[in-house]
Amino acid sequence: MNIAPGKSAVSNIPFDQARVDRLMEEAGIDVLLATSKHNTQYLLGGYKFIFFAAMDAIGHSRYLPVVVYEKGGPDHAAYIGNRMEGGEHQNNPFWTPTLHAACWGTLDAANLAVEHLQKIGKAGARIGIEPGFLPSDAYTLIRKALPDARLIDATAMLESMRAIKTDAELEKLRTASELITDSMLATIAWAREGTTKTEIIERLRREETNRGAHFEYCLLTLGSSHNRAASPQAWKKGEVLSIDSGGNYHGYIGDLCRMGILGEPDAELDDLLAEVETVQQAAFSKVRAGTLGGDMISHAEGALKKSKVAPYTDFFAHGMGLITHEAPFLMTNHPVTYEGTYAAKPLEKNMVLSVETTMLHPTRGFIKLEDTVAVTDTGYVMFGDRGRGWNRGGAS
């Protein structure tokens, strides 16, 4: 299916075109071939095909959405998708002037991308690709079909593109965080003595789904154990519970951790959670536009170093949005393997951070807080700012 270019086709570009063009220029990229679900979703203004929302494989191949975007040339943009996406376009037209809803696998998608690049005169251009999200058969086809093109890793450029959230994105992240927080608190209140980890995780899944969030995972501990996988382990009186869940709202991630207790917390537990909170607050105190990301990290790490729980406690902060770890990247290989490339850069307004302090206490168990904050000119706004103390189990 082809749609002739025209003013109406490019009047509703759903991203900051000038910013994307600038980032492409800085990266030496003439035209983008975005192939990851998160970047195609971003470039299409939030659209993700529901049929492949939870999987990619079909038949002998897999779903491979492609957004082609030429720097400074939105009239040459194209979306290449599955044949069933023609119906999606009929109901809510894509902004790209060209649409090919024609594919069932990787090679037909790659062929159409090549044909479109040739049609717009970019067969020998500097083409930005996503190596981690471009299957080898599609890459090989593109490489052979466009021998004069220079294929450039666009991963960092695309990460920078998504780092500064729009107001609409912030609202989705806020909603995701609120829904996840509400679901976790309701689950803690529901669980009681004898409830197993598997049952608690299933309850959380239902709580999130019933609130309109898409459940992705739950990492759960009970008692003195540090094991966060589902199991028949049952909650006992006096034991702590940590519940760390990720879910999304319209593709945007909610990722928080809260603590529960079956009974009343004793003085030691109050003290331990206060130590975690002290580190969290140290990090928050340095969150504002203009502060170097590394300065926020070092301030929180300094507070942790002074704490009596430092030997078995860890601090981590990372960017989040459409995926759980994205720009700004503030720490190197800690614990996710990537470079802290934003540590020496200032935080910017509308960046979103996940801030987490994790204690693996040798006898009292897994004690953690994870919070989501959006950077503002004067500080931060926290999403899902509830239940940050000890939440009582068996209360419902």
Automatic annotation (TrEMBL):
Residues 171-377 form the Peptidase M24 domain. Residues 19-164 form the Creatinase N-terminal domain. This is M24 family metallopeptidase. It comes from Mesorhizobium calcicola.
